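ok so i was messing around last nite and threw this chain in just to see what happens. nothing serious, just curious
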Amino acid sequence: MTLGDLAPHLLGSVVETVGATAAVLYLKNAADGGHQAAAAVGARRPAQTLAEDHPLITSLRTRRAPLVLENGSAAPWLKPWAARAFPAASVIVPLRWQDDLIGFLLLGPGQGGTRYTVADLELMATVGEQAAGVIVTARLAEHRARSHEFEAFHRLTSFVIHDLKNSISALSMLSESALQHFDDPEFQRDALQTVARTVDRMKALIGRLSGVPEPARLRLEPLDLAILAREAASPIVKSGRITLVAELTPLPISADGEALSRVMQNLVTNAVQSIDGRGIVTVKTFAEGRWAVVSVSDTGRGISEEFARTSLFAPFCSTKKDGWGIGLYHARGLVEAHGGAIDVSSKEGVGTTVTVRLPLGGRA
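result:
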């Protein structure tokens, strides 16, 4: 429930507790410091907003006790203002939290038109303190919810942009190979298929940003792990500087093809980007007990033992100059969502092997 939903219920409880005939609740706007009517009971909600420097707001900032409009103690201008804002106004109750004025109540007369007693005013002060606590709690809850939504959206956009970068890297590798092999009909066919798949994947990624972020839901279907691995490696089949070694055994799995394709593409892209100059990327699929396994190895720079131990799967930690450090973090989440596991072994100056194990045939 938002504060906007809560305000009428809160005001109704106050009216019932103090025995007022009507009331208006004003709340501070965090954006500009002004106060505006948030709810009304037994009266029309005033449209006027009180600026931060309005005389009433200034006077209420240093006041804790209710302000009675009927005993002549109020400022001369105050009762006419209250009469315009809320003709039945009888008492103004400041709502304070610590040293901050977060709002105030305009209360009408008591039931039957009776004047409020000193005991009634003391009750109003107490109720005002309790109401202020409820309002602050509701606002904190709203802020936390918005923060969680923003965090979820930030995480989603980070993952999507990272996956788009991988798709761009795949197209870049393909374009490098095209300069040497475009006259090859087989290369032309493979290249067009790779471009079509990559474009579809990029469209799907952008589409994820157009909707409301929601928890990832896997769309499981029967797949061949070898085909997913081959498609991820296809942009470097005829690379001028990278030699691809593919040892792919068909393996049936039940998986979300789009999600696992992103995992495979990330692993292959990382392997290629880890190699300075010429090198070898090896992609294998094989069965190991009840697991379908895919491994991607490279002869690149490798990573230090300390980084592998402390930061490898941590988000926003990367050994690459322009890396985001979320690729393996995201990949592990997707693999584990499939009931699998991902392991990395590496040695500086020698290379890295990433191994993904998934339930063979979709078994958990």
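not much to say yet. The CA atoms of residues 84 and 168 lie 64 Å apart.
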